[in-house]
Write a structure and sequence with these properties.
seven-stranded mixed beta sheet, Aspartate Aminotransferase, domain 1, four-stranded antiparallel beta sheet, homodimer, 14 helices, alpha/beta, Aspartate Aminotransferase, domain 2
Chain lengths: 384, 384
């Protein structure tokens, strides 16, 4: 047995930014002190930069699902007509949350691997007047597909509906012009391109969304958006926040500012492009039929091979945790993540390992044929 | 200027158990792996030990307020008649949450520093049949007072009402026989006697409480108790959990098992007793008129002195963060915490510092007169 370093290479939790991890240990800080108030305000401003918006940003101690719920519970009432675009497991989560809160839900479904087109959203809005909200994923990380939220926003913007975008894996991996396109609610999570462990979620709200906040609905308290907005202005979270994670987030956001938001996004996009080219060179089928995501690339296991075996060999041979398909896609596809703290060195390794694993599973593979594609994308981007 | 070590001595966040902080750095773990499932199951079992119950325990990524909300949103419907005992800021939080979810709330109020008696709870239950729930704090940490939850449970147990106990600062600081007394819902948080940073909350549910879980109410999704129970049985959190904090919790819970739950509680009780005796020796007035809490001791600032100045001097002279009063009690009282990772060495320092601070504020103080009381409590407990 040789050394196998543990490498977490999944689309969330993602690899951690080491200085952020070290900062988390400094959690002997009290959340009602001036020091912490300054830190908290800084982090909220950093998140605006990270998201590229001047809208208010609110931060919760929860996973991303909590912030998704806050959009539903704070802005909609039981019986409100809403449209939900479902193209994978996270679209299904929107459907579950909106139904759990008693909304009148119309689902626009796309098969796994495809995306819901903006035309279908526009048609649904035209066909049924009085629609109060449209829910979508910027990136459906369960399948590796992106939605054309820019065009969707154009359609939604003509109506009174609120456009709610789960960008938990879309932020930092794809260009989202929140203010310019009119994305009313945009949701993110800490364990994605923000490079720290799970436990924090955040979202931005447009003026159009804020106008919906009254009357107060009897469906929320912990995820009260207005309380979080007012608290945030004073550098306070209404409830005790996850101080250790906020210390980590402050550190990773410093790095994002240093790197630049556009470079962070380009980093993911380049790695995704290189992965797709390597997969094609290795005679593998890309699972995403729509716009491929920058966050994650889904690849179909070759005929006669289960993706379970590919995922397992990554772990046993190389200590790497990569993602299998979720739900009914388990065994069918495997997924490489690019969101956040991933680099070309990671990808050279991942593709070299894939070549070995495929050969071990009986496929004919020329060693280096996938890796060289990644190298070419690197060379082109670096003008070599 | 001399060295002043930073010491966080507040009733939450509390001092961190160092091996737990180190464990938090190992967060490159994925929450859908066998390793994590084992860890998660272990932590749920550890929490049962910590709480001293065989009831199901559910764990949320949130502050304690999230778990408080889950009890309201999962078990009650708008219009349900409930009784809320309010003896401080956290009782007021129960009132706010129950009202936010549209319950029909009857408040039993006690002035700050006093507790709501079990007799008043029994009378309220007798006077208005059909009461569905009773909400209380085991320890009201804003004032340092405990409630007699044992006697309250006896009264509530004779009715159909669910008894919901916020024991966020009561767990690990006072004896609570959850199963024996019939405490239907008991709530805890990570940043208290569990010795890790904020971000995790947990609660136990009795069979009587589970019977209320159906029909499903359109007021929750993230804090779905049944989903968390079913997930927990398989070692999974329904949503991505705060992995770094769970790694820390596993470590601090190992220490709690090593120490023993009863010794952990006795530790807080002894420190609280010693603090009270020192305060009296220093001619200070204890704020708690009811049963004093083991979690925290509240002391009234002497006449002509603001507690703001006492709190400030702790920081500027000694680097120690101690708690002021909250809300209208700010400036009037100051609070010493004992919950979790506090020891006699901490308290010797805290009281010696208090003596110096009081003298600097113009009080006549004999140095050592408070510290010697702490030493005597130590000596007695150690049979010296």
């Amino acid at each position: 047995m040789h050394i196998r370093k543990l490498r977490l290479l999944t689309p969330g939790p993602t690899p951690l930014y080491p200085p952020a991890v070290r900062a988390m240990a400094g959690a002997d800080i009290h959340h009602r002190t001036e020091d912490f108030r300054e830190l908290y305000k800084q982090v909220l401003a950093d998140l605006q930069y990270f998201m590229g918006t001047s809208n208010d940003v609110m931060l919760f101690t929860s996973s991303g699902t909590g912030a998704m719920e806050s959009a539903v519970s704070n802005l909609f009432s039981p019986g409100d007509k809403v449209v939900v675009a479902v193209a994978g497991k996270f679209g299904e989560r929107w459907e579950q949350i909106t139904r759990a809160f008693g909304l009148d839900v119309q689902v626009l479904e796309a098969p796994y691997g495809e995306s819901v087109t903006p035309e279908r959203v526009a048609e649904a809005l035209a066909a049924a007047p009085g629609i109060q909200g449209v829910f979508v994923q910027a990136t459906e990380s369960s399948t590796g597909v992106s939605h054309d939220v820019k065009s969707m926003a154009k359609a939604v913007g003509k109506t009174d509906a609120i456009f709610v975008v789960d960008a938990i894996t879309g932020l930092g991996t794809s260009q989202l012009d929140i203010d310019g396109w009119g994305l009313d609610v945009v949701i993110g999570g800490s364990q994605k391109a923000a490079m720290i462990p799970p436990g924090l979620a955040f979202l931005s709200l447009s003026a159009k969304a804020w106008a919906r906040i009254e009357p107060r609905r009897p469906t929320y308290y912990y995820f009260d958006l207005l309380k979080h907005k007012k608290g945030g202005e004073k550098g306070e979270s209404p409830w005790t926040p996850a101080t250790s994670l906020i210390l980590g987030l402050a550190e990773s956001m410093k790095y994002v500012r240093e790197l630049g938001r556009d470079n962070l996004i380009e980093n993911a996009q380049l790695l995704a492009k290189a992965t797709r080219e390597a997969a094609v060179a290795l005679d593998l089928e890309l699972f995403a039929k729509g716009i491929p995501a920058g966050a994650v690339t889904s690849i179909r296991a070759p005929e006669g091979v289960s993706s379970n075996d590919i995922v397992k060999q990554y772990k046993t041979r190389f200590g790497a945790i990569i993602a299998n398909g979720q739900g009914s896609m388990k065994g069918e596809i495997f997924r490489f993540a690019h969101l956040g703290y991933f680099d070309f060195a990671d990808l050279f390794g991942v593709i070299a390992e894939l070549e070995i694993i495929l050969r071990s599973l009986g496929r004919k593979v020329e060693f280096g044929s996938g890796v060289s594609k990644v190298q070419e994308v690197y060379a082109e981007a670096s003008k070599l």
